[in-house]
Task: inverse folding
């Protein structure tokens, strides 16, 4: 399909290599297993394939048709037109990892700016070039902490209010280290949260990981927790929603050693789960202990400023079996999307966006709380997401909403059995007052249904 | 010209994007949680568009020219893939939507799973791994889970040939194994005697890259697999080089137990300047129940009138999740688009022409550059980037000089078993004319190396920037262009 050879070119090339046919090139392959008949559909043309995929895409009910109140780590934010227009430049998306800095300065400077924006957004000193997603960034934080203490502190404490997928990923990431003990603590409805976590830190603890805002939308001050962790010589990692940091106190002020998170809200479409972007920021002192690519500033022989991959001695291709992680690339194009997005929004835009999410979600929470049968958990500060206790099964309520073109919040029972009547509702700048009022109307009807 | 950073381009009070005013009453955030300062730059939309346009022009890319970076399969990235992946029904769907609302997405994943199983001759597949390295990690964890399930706890060693990918040893360690290095013989195959001598009850598995990083098909592959299986180990295939095998042979038929696939290499999804990739893992029947959670399956059979209902299923002895949600869905759409426009015979053509191109270039270059393993290659080949008569000129100099000729250099200094390696992978999408021009440049560089080596040492001369001081970068360590306390 994309092979340019004419028959005469093919024949000439075969002559040069001394073969009489294309088949002849494969005489090394065991004959019995050579040239299998693949049971695949007949090839189609570009026109036909576009139609096939159009049909598949149309078989979905996506958020071009639905009003979305579903979040849980992935948010329906507006992506400014310029983001994707720039990503479509072939010189960005058809390049590879910048192994040759002289002809990769675009990618390298882009990553350097990404690192700068993430460091400033999280309030940390430095950021790496990115990870696969929020879950793997959290997994790498655990690995970094474990290796930082050379395996001498085997305990990792996970807040039960960290995204369930992140916790599962961390368990998988660490299962190769038999001595590591992962403790999950401070479950959803614990009134002593997050103090409960502080009580568990001891001198065997390498890391304590919390989420900000947490999976249930709540915003806690982790200053004391950070202090207790440090008193015991342990590290604290905070997984944060980057949009919330446009408004909320950055985790650096709570004494976070690692700030990680899911970068999807920064100009990346929801895309049914990926590709997304993991970010990872830390303090200067820990930079040599973390995994992932780093881009640093330097000069060429004419003293011209330029950028290179640096501290590569930590990486798998040099250290081989001694490397602490096998990660090769970063999430290049997604990091570029976030860089463009943050550059466009800037200081004023990100603050405005975060405030919009805050005001709209609070309006939604107040309205829903007034509907008979529904209670919003209002004990805690929240940002763009909150838990609603429903008068009947949230799955049924969602079915009712869906029939009216509304994608309801996440039923929490699947992740927290004790919360089976609760639903997690997210609100973004894309939800107008009208759509919030519609949601309330429908919730009221669903209660009586 | 040096492009300023976004922080240098910033002007106080400038805006690049505006939001509607709040249409709801404002709420107050407690002071304790309110951020005092937000140190982000301030630019106009045009500032941003120009800046990133300038940056893009400092990059070399497949769209600009030949990119024979060995082991990376830098083939053309078809534009229709970008169109299908951006269809709103796909792009605007949330990963936690009820399955009834995302049957189109699940159908894409299901078809892709079926195609990958058929192409590789395997029985089960996970699409979840985010990249090749993560696919390898999943492979390592499956090996671990399998032996653990069989209460075979003494299997602690993974055998890694010296011609394997650089990630393999790190992956073994991360999965809790001890990597054991296996040497290659004179033909670039695995040293069978050595392999036999280390295979025993402690062998968890072998990580075999085939074709290996020399671009050579392992001639004793059936014997290698038999030896490892006889010892009770599993054979993991690094599928980074699958482009050479499409429709030619199926790793499952050869006896591999696990294989990861790089959709961003073999199936043409863009490399994106270093990600996002996608690294599905296919496995043989006995390992299907260990796959990561979740996989897509038919949960309700359809009939003539209603299509089947697709849903997510957790394999019985699953190793668990390796990331959030279900994998890089946007990449799945691109890869499936690519598979469907090729069909079975089109896929076989890909491998045929990738291998023809590599052999053609190898033939033209081997008289001037030493070819340490002189036999038919698959999709890539490795030359030595050094000559006895000009010992001062290195592979790095050749690589840098190639940029002056308008080409991306081959992979250099890898694999480690070739002195000053230059690893060349043309891919099937390049014309004879392009390859002839590259060969001409390589021959002329070989001449320059003897006549004017300084020209090579100082190269590149025609790039936006010269050779960069990497020692200074690591010593002075500037990783962030602006900090609040800089002002």
Result:
């Amino acid at each position: 399909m994309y092979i340019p050879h004419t028959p005469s070119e093919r024949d000439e090339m075969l002559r040069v290599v001394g073969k009489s046919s294309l088949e002849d090139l494969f005489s090394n392959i065991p004959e019995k297993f050579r040239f299998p008949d693949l049971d695949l559909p007949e090839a189609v043309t570009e026109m036909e394939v576009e139609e096939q995929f159009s049909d598949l895409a149309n078989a979905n009910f996506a958020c071009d048709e639905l009003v979305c109140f579903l979040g849980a780590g992935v948010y329906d934010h507006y992506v400014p037109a310029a983001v994707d227009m720039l990503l479509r430049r072939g010189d960005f998306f058809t390049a590879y990892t910048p192994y040759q800095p002289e002809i990769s300065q675009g990618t390298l400077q882009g990553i350097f700016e990404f690192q700068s924006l993430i460091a400033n957004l999280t309030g940390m000193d430095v950021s790496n070039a990115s990870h696969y997603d929020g879950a793997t960034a959290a997994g790498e934080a655990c690995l970094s902490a474990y290796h930082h203490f050379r395996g001498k502190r085997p305990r990792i404490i996970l807040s039960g209010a960290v995204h369930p997928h992140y916790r599962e990923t961390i368990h998988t990431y660490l299962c190769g280290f038999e001595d590591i003990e992962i403790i999950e603590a401070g479950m959803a409805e614990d009134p002593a949260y997050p103090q409960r976590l502080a009580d568990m830190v001891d001198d065997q603890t390498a890391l304590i990981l919390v989420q900000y805002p947490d999976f249930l939308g709540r915003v806690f001050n982790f200053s004391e927790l950070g202090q207790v962790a440090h008193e015991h010589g342990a590290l604290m990692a905070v997984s944060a929603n980057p949009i919330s940091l446009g408004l909320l106190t950055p985790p650096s002020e709570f004494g976070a050693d690692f700030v990680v998170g899911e970068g999807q809200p920064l100009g990346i479409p929801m895309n049914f789960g990926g590709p997304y972007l993991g970010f990872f920021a830390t303090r200067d002192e820990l930079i040599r202990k973390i995994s992932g690519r780093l881009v640093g500033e330097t000069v060429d022989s004419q003293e011209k400023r330029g950028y290179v991959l640096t501290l590569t001695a930590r990486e798998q291709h040099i250290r081989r079996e001694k490397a602490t992680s096998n990660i090769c690339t970063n999430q290049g194009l997604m990091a570029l999307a976030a860089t463009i997005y943050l550059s466009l929004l800037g200081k004023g835009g990100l603050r405005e966006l975060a405030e919009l999410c805050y005001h709209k979600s609070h309006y939604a929470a107040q309205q829903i709380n007034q509907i008979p049968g529904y209670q919003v958990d209002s004990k805690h500060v929240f940002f763009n997401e909150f838990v609603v206790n429903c008068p009947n099964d949230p799955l049924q309520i969602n079915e009712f909403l869906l029939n009216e073109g509304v994608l309801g919040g996440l039923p929490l029972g699947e992740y927290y059995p004790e919360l089976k009547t609760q639903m997690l509702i997210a609100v973004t700048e894309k939800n107008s007052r009208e759509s919030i009022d519609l949601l309330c109307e429908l919730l009221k009807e669903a209660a009586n249904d | 010209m040096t492009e300023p950073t976004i922080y240098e381009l910033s002007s106080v009070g400038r805006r690049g994007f505006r939001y509607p005013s709040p249409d709801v009453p404002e709420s107050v955030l407690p002071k304790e949680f309110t951020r005092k300062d937000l140190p982000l730059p301030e630019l106009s939309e045009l500032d941003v568009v120009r800046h990133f346009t300038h940056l893009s022009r400092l990059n070399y890319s497949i769209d600009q020219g030949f990119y024979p970076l060995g082991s990376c399969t830098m083939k053309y990235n078809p534009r229709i893939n970008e169109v299908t992946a951006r269809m709103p029904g796909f792009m605007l769907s949330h990963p936690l939507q009820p399955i009834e609302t995302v049957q189109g997405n699940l159908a894409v994943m299901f078809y892709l799973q079926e195609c990958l199983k058929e192409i590789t001759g395997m029985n089960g597949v996970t699409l979840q791994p985010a990249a090749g390295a993560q696919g390898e990690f999943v492979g390592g964890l499956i090996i671990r889970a399998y032996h653990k399930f069989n209460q075979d706890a003494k299997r602690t060693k993974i055998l890694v040939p010296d011609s394997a990918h650089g990630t393999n040893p790190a992956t073994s360690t991360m999965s809790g194994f001890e990597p054991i290095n296996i040497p290659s013989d004179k033909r670039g195959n695995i040293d069978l005697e050595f392999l036999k001598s280390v295979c025993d009850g402690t062998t968890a598995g072998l990580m075999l890259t085939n074709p290996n990083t020399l671009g050579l098909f392992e001639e004793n592959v059936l014997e290698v697999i038999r030896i490892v299986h006889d010892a009770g180990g599993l054979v993991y295939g690094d599928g980074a080089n699958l482009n050479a095998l499409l429709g030619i042979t199926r790793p499952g038929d050869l006896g591999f137990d696990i294989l990861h696939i790089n959709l961003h290499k073999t199936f043409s999804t863009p490399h994106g300047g270093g990600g996002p990739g996608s690294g599905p893992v296919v496995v043989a029947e006995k390992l299907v129940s260990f796959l990561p959670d979740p996989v897509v399956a038919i949960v309700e059979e359809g009939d003539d009138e209603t299509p089947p209902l697709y849903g997510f299923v957790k394999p019985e002895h699953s190793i668990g999740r390796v990331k959030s949600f279900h994998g890089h869905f946007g990449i799945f759409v691109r890869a499936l688009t690519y598979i469907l426009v090729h069909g079975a015979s089109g896929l076989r053509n890909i491998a045929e022409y990738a291998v023809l191109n590599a052999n053609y270039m190898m033939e033209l270059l081997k008289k001037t550059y030493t070819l340490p393993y002189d036999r038919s290659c698959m999709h890539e080949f490795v030359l030595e980037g050094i000559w006895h008569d000009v010992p001062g000129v290195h592979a790095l100099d050749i690589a840098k000089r190639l940029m002056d000729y308008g080409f991306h250099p081959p992979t250099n200094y890898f694999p480690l078993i070739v002195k000053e390696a230059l690893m060349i992978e043309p891919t099937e999408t390049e014309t004879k004319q392009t390859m002839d021009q590259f060969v001409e440049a390589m021959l002329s560089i070989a001449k320059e190396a003897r006549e004017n080596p300084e020209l090579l040492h100082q190269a590149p001369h025609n790039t936006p920037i010269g050779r960069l001081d990497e020692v200074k970068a690591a010593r002075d360590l500037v990783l962030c262009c602006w900090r609040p306390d800089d002002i």
Observations:
- Chain A touches chain B through 199 residues (CB under 8 Å).
